[in-house]
Design a protein that fits this description.
alpha+beta; Four Helix Bundle (Hemerythrin (Met), subunit A); 2 domains; two-stranded antiparallel sheet; 10 helices
């Protein structure tokens, strides 16, 4: 399996960002009634429990164990999951975390994060774990993904409670650098399977931000690879990392992101982006 290096400065930022995000979510969740609905299906208590379940899973993976430690048979379910079925897995796992007392869940979230970071600090952040869809992901990418989960679900709670929720673009950029690029380079397994007909040919999308590494993702006959930037890319996507992350997870619409100027399209054939995103998409 290919090794994907993790920049030491980004690794330091990812660990600091995780601790900060946990504390922000804890403070926000405890400041409001737990029954307030923040998505169509989850209230504040459910949302924090979901974050606990993800943090506990990450803790298990960093320990070098399998998800079966949390839930018998979970490994097979995790390996079979793709971006379109991850919501089903979330529901199954969440059922195994019945605690809905927000104070108790917040304590568990903080303690699990501390244990996970302590374990991760003793390992090379480039070490890989088996992740959803039998993808391979570095420990650095795992932490960056968890930071994004905390910030996006914190955004859900903040929106529902009309609370300001600033998002650091440096920390948000880790999701692109360490997670998206990392899992693409290490091997994404079945994660992007969508069952639709494969579009033949090549679509190259150049991603540019002041906060991330210039990189190009290329879809070739249904397979995505990460390549060096090329001025001849079909699509050039210039982005603000917090806005892109919220857009990718369905929190901000594509028209709204474009109207704010925080996600801009260019390149020779920008109309090909929707075809690219039908494969390279995330749960919304």
């Amino acid at each position: 399996m290919p090794t994907v290096p993790v920049d030491p400065a980004q690794w330091d930022l990812a660990r600091r960002a995780l601790t900060e995000a946990v504390e922000r979510v804890v403070a926000l969740a405890q400041a409001h009634p737990p029954h307030i609905m923040v998505t169509a299906d989850w209230n504040i208590a459910d949302t924090v429990a979901h974050l606990v379940s993800l943090m506990r899973l990450d803790e298990v993976l960093v320990q070098g164990q399998t998800p079966d430690v949390l839930l018998p048979g979970a490994l097979a379910a995790v390996d079979a999951t793709n971006v379109d079925t991850v919501a089903d897995l979330n529901r199954v796992v969440l059922d195994r975390f019945p605690e809905r007392d927000v104070a108790a869940s917040c304590r568990e979230l903080r303690e699990s994060a501390q244990r996970m970071l302590a374990l991760a600090g003793r390992r090379d952040p480039a070490d890989q774990v088996s992740w959803l869809g039998a993808a391979r992901l570095s420990i650095g990418g795992l932490v960056a993904h968890m930071v994004n989960e905390l910030v996006v679900h914190g955004w859900d709670i903040a929106r529902a409670t009309r609370t300001p929720w600033p998002m650091d673009p440096h920390a948000a950029g880790l999701f692109f650098d360490l997670f998206l690029l990392g899992v693409t380079r290490a091997g994404y397994g079945n994660l992007l399977e969508h069952g639709a007909p494969v579009r033949p040919g090549r679509i190259a999308v150049d991603f540019r931000s002041d906060y991330t590494t210039p990189a190009m993702l290329v879809l070739t006959d249904g397979h995505v690879t990460a390549e060096d930037p090329d001025p001849r890319a079909d699509v050039r996507l210039t982005f603000d990392p917090p806005t892109l992350n919220l857009m990718l997870f369905g929190r901000v619409s594509k028209p709204r992101a474009a109207l704010t100027g925080k996600v801009r399209l260019g390149g020779r054939r920008p109309w090909l982006l929707p075809a690219f995103m039908r494969t390279m998409h995330l749960p919304s």
